[in-house]
Amino acid sequence: MPSPARPALHPRTDSMKVALTKGTLLVPPTYFALAHARAMPECDWRAFTLAARVDDPTIAFPIAVASPGALSPFLAQRLVSQARGLGAMRRAITSWGPDVIHQHQATWSLPAVGAARKTGAPLVVTLHGGDAYPRLGGGLGAAWNALNRRAAFEGATQLLAVSRYLADVAVGAGADWGRLAVHYQGVDTDWWTPSSNAASGSFPGLGCDAPDVPVVLFVGALSRLKGVDDLIAASVSLVGRCPHRLVLVGDGPLVSVLHGRVPSHVTLTGGLGRERVREWMRCARVLVLPTKPTRGREEAAGLVLLEAQACGVPVIAYRTGGTPEMVASGACTLTGERSPGALACSINEAVAWSDEERADRAMACREWVVRERSLRASVDQLRAIYEAVAR
Fold first, then answer.
1. Which tens digits make up the pLDDT trace of 338-349?
2. How far apart are CA 27 and CA 24, in angstroms?
3. What is the 3-state secondary structure (H, E, C) of the chain?
4. What's the predicted TM-score (pTM) here?
5. Measured between alpha carbons, how far is 35 from 193 in angstroms, rounded to an integer?
6. Contact by Cβ (8 Å): 103, 126
7. Distance of alpha carbon 113 from alpha carbon 154, whole angstroms
């Protein structure tokens, strides 16, 4: 992703030291944790985390790692490393002396909360999903998450939720409405763009050079939570009378089950970098994200919906959680009935769109994201938040 041009100086944020904190930092897929920092070069940024794995060579960002073993595949080593790393991470943040601390996800927020208390720096906490809910499940993991959530709710100068839906969830879990705001994350509409090849249907290297075989695309974790099982069932029931290619981009718990068992019209790509994901989006007829409510939890937002629409790709999704806040009304399809049958009907309609209708929907999707959910607007809001809390 190209670096954005440097904006005009902002008296209150120019050279402001912002500590970006998160339990672990994995890039890909969690580009969202760095997106605002890369778009606000007037600030002095540094990331603090227990462990990081950054496989994208375009990321040139100072990252202080407190406990590399926190990503160990061995549970005992991982737990010991995490426990030791909490204090080291807190001390590293404190030593740097930030003007603002911005914690992504209330889970693993204790180092950021402690550093804010020690330094007096204001703490901004962005809630992304499960971290905003009242205690889910049981056991030590749930108790630990609850402890971190309470600390974040009590210690934050400003709480941010990635959708109105999630803000309501957070209030129900004890968040102070007076310190809570909705902050849509936004996507870079200068990078997520339609392709000049879209009209011809030619996308060398992807194997989707046949424009008469529409690509139905899924991007995300291959799990039942994301509705992958429903999508495959819908596709299989439909392909005989509605030829299409189903492309599943991502990894997850269903990978081992799906490999070798999916029909020939289904492609499993595995996890891909952003450039490759964008290529698939640009050649897709429609993107489908049928996330289902699971154990009391619903989709908080879904940045992939915005990325697809910015590329001119209409989306089909289950009407759940914050999803309705992430789609262009009238140009995309939300199904209230969460079932393979409902998905099949929606996909069938999308494949049957005329070229003119598809183009009109594509334009409406992109225009809505540019106007309502762009990274630029999100950054402007965040800049104002930093200025307010740092006064």
1. 999 999 999 999
2. 10
3. CCCCCCCCCCCCCCCCEEEEEEEEEEECCCCHHHHHHHHCCCCEEEEEEEEEEECCCCCCCCEEECCHHHHCCCHHHHHHHHHHHHHHHHHHHHHHCCCEEEEECCCCCHHHHHHHHHHCCCEEEEECCHHHCCCCCCHHHHHHHHHHHHHHHHHCCEEEECCHHHHHHHHHCCCCHHHEEECCCCECCCCCCCCCCCCCCCCCCCCCCCCCCCEEEEECCCCCCCCHHHHHHHHHHHCCCCCCEEEEECCCCCHHHHCCCCCCCEEEEECCCHHHHHHHHHCCCEEEECCCCECCECCCCCHHHHHHHHCCCCEEEECCCCHHHHCCCCCCEEECCCCHHHHHHHHHHHHHCCHHHHHHHHHHHHHHHHHHCEHHHHHHHHHHHHHHHCC
4. 0.89
5. 16
6. yes
7. 9
Sheet holding 17-27, edge to edge: 63-65, 44-54, 17-27, 100-104, 123-127, 158-161, 180-182
How far apart are alpha carbons 73 and 384 in whole angstroms?
41
| Gap between the Cα atoms of 38 and 305, Å rounded | 21
Q: What percent of the chain has pLDDT over 70?
A: 92
Chain position carrying tokens 């102070």:
176
What gap in Å lies between CA 201 and CA 213, rounded to an integer?
10
**Predicted confidence (pLDDT) per residue in 326-368, tens digit:** 999 999 999 999 999 999 999 999 999 999 999 999 999 999 9
The upper half-sphere exposure of residue 387, i.e. CA atoms within 13 Å in the direction of its Cβ, equals 12
Q: Which two tokens stand for residue 209?
A: 């050079």
Return the residue matching tokens 């050079």: 209
Q: Do the bridges between strand 17-27 and strand 286-289 make them parallel or antiparallel, or are there none, so unpaired?
A: unpaired
Contact predicate 178/172, CB 8 Å: no
Report the phi/psi class of residue 262: left, alpha or beta, with left for phi > 0 and alpha for psi in -120 to 50: beta
Q: Give the dihedral sign, CA 129/133/139/144.
A: positive
**Contact indicator for 315, 286 with CB cutoff of 8 Å:** yes
> Do the Cβ atoms of 166 and 132 come closer than 8 Å?
yes
Say what the pLDDT of residue 168 is. Answer: 97
> Omega of the bond prior to 28 within 30 degrees of 0, cis?
yes
User: Which residue is it, tokens 């672990």?
Assistant: 24
